[in-house]
């Protein structure tokens, strides 16, 4: 009998890659989608006829219980969240309801309907915030710097708590930034690669950015969803840092992206204070030794190749 996996956040970047991976592994895939006035299935368009979509929302626990009762999944991956840090400063309550309390609603729905379901929680390196050690590991103390980071920390500890209180097979993946051509346009990598493509094609002349000094540990989303699946397959649930172990500044990202299109970034990038944050996370770099050792996980795609892949994809999409 095929295993059945339920993905919350299937319309997002990671949800779409994870759905593809699970289909390749022979899973039946059920994706939860929330009500919207327009259809936003672009990322899953190519697999839509091979997965089941069902309505539900992290803000509505009854809807989650109904989905679990109807579809009886063996594994639940909670990738749904208000995931943009900047928005979490202007909408802290919504971010808390979705990104923090949403986790409790899913965990509780699992406890009520079928505690044998295996659970993956999408936790984040944003929980390290003002970092207390370099590089960051599973035992580095947390110090979140945004309402998003605080909300993710709550979700992380609820996952640990439901594991310890009710024996749920619940794992928390502390994932560092991961990107792809499917990344939302508001995140800095995609904003830059899309901006570069527009400038190259004569559709724009400048790109407005905030803090160029911030450093991030950027990996490729398709590599990272493999780690999620591996965590859920372990006999024992646990928490894992998933990262590349390298850090690069936003400025380096900009240089690589403009270079990829044969452009000089200094002629086009404008610093705009509108993109600065009330509190910044200056430096993230993870140590994934535990994931390498226990999960056998490795990433395939390097930083420069990732940025070049994204520039190429944006050029192709805009030329059509
Ligand atoms: P994303 O592209 O922003 O996708 C977020 C998903 O959550 C979308 O499918 C969205 O649905 C859904 N969603 C939002 N609010 C919801 C609600 N109230 N009920 C049900 N679904 C809701 O995010 P991502 O980059 O794929 O990231 C996946 C997860 O990993 C997120 O939890 C994120 O916080 C976390 N994370 C991401 C990174 C990263 O670098 N990408 C790193 C660490 C952790 P709509 O399409 O309807 O908006
Ligand atoms: N978005 C954005 N836009 N960021 C900018 C800009 C800009 O114009 N200019 C500079 N930055 C800087 C931000 O200040 C931040 O330091 C860095 O670029 C990365 O910003 P984002 O790409 O928005 O990602 P993030 O690191 O805040 O959050 C992402 O990674 C987290 C994991 O650490 C998101 O995917 C989160 O959901 C995820 O948990």
Molecular structure report:
The chain has two domains: 4-178 and 218-242, NAD(P)-binding Rossmann-like Domain (Rossmann fold), CATH 3.40.50.720; 184-216 and 246-285 and 301-319, UDP-galactose 4-epimerase, domain 1 (Alpha-Beta Complex), CATH 3.90.25.10. The chain has ten helices and 13 strands. The protein has helices spanning 13-24, 61-71, 85-90, 92-113, 147-166, 188-200, 221-233, 250-260, 289-295, 303-319; strands at 4-8, 28-33, 52-55, 75-78, 118-124, 169-175, 178-179, 207-209, 215-216, 219-220, 239-242, 248-249, 269-271. Strands 3-2-1-4-5-6-11 form a seven-stranded parallel β-sheet, with helices on both faces. The mean pLDDT is 98. Residues 8-9, 11-15, 34, 36, 40, 57-59, 79-83, 98, 122, 124, 175, 177-178, 184 line the site of NADP nicotinamide-adenine-dinucleotide phosphate.
Topology:
Blueprint: E1 4-8, H1 13-24, E2 28-33, E3 52-55, H2 61-71, E4 75-78, H3 85-90, H4 92-113, E5 118-124, H5 147-166, E6 169-175, E7 178-179, H6 188-200, E8 207-209, E9 215-216, E10 219-220, H7 221-233, E11 239-242, E12 248-249, H8 250-260, E13 269-271, H9 289-295, H10 303-319
Parallel strand pairs: 1-2, 1-4, 2-3, 4-5, 5-6, 6-11, 7-10, 8-13
Antiparallel strand pairs: 9-12
Helix pairs in contact: 1-7, 2-4, 4-5, 6-8, 6-10, 8-10
The structure holds NADP nicotinamide-adenine-dinucleotide phosphate and guanosine-5'-diphosphate-alpha-D-mannose (GDD).
């Amino acid at each position: 009998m095929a295993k059945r996996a339920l993905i919350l956040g299937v319309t997002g970047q990671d949800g779409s890659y994870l759905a593809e991976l699970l289909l390749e592994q022979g899973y039946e895939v059920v994706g939860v989608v929330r009500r919207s006035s327009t259809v936003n299935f672009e990322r899953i368009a190519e697999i839509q006829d091979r997965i089941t979509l069902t309505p539900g929302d992290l803000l509505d626990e009854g809807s989650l219980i109904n989905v679990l009762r109807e579809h009886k999944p063996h594994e639940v991956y909670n990738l749904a969240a208000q995931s943009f840090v900047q928005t979490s400063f202007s909408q802290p309550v919504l971010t808390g309801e979705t990104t923090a309390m949403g986790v409790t609603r899913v965990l509780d729905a699992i406890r009520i309907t079928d505690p044998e379901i295996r659970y993956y929680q999408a936790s984040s390196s944003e929980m390290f915030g003002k970092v207390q050690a370099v590089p960051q590991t599973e035992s580095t103390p947390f110090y979140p710097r945004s309402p998003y980071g605080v909300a993710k920390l709550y979700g992380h500890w609820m996952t640990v708590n439901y594991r310890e209180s009710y024996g749920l097979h619940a794992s928390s993946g502390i994932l560092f930034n991961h990107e792809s051509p499917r990344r939302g346009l508001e995140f800095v990598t995609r904003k830059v690669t899309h901006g570069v493509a527009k400038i190259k094609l004569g559709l724009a002349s400048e790109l407005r950015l905030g803090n160029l000094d911030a450093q991030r540990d950027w990996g490729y989303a398709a590599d990272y969803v493999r780690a999620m699946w591996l965590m859920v397959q372990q006999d024992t649930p646990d928490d894992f840092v998933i990262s590349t172990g390298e850090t690069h500044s936003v400025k380096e990202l900009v240089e690589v992206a403009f270079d990829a299109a044969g452009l000089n970034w200094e002629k086009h990038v404008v610093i705009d204070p509108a993109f600065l944050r009330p509190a910044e996370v200056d430096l993230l770099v993870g140590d994934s030794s535990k994931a390498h050792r226990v999960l056998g996980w490795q990433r395939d795609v390097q930083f420069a190749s990732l940025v070049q892949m994204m520039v190429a994809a944006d050029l192709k999409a805009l030329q059509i």
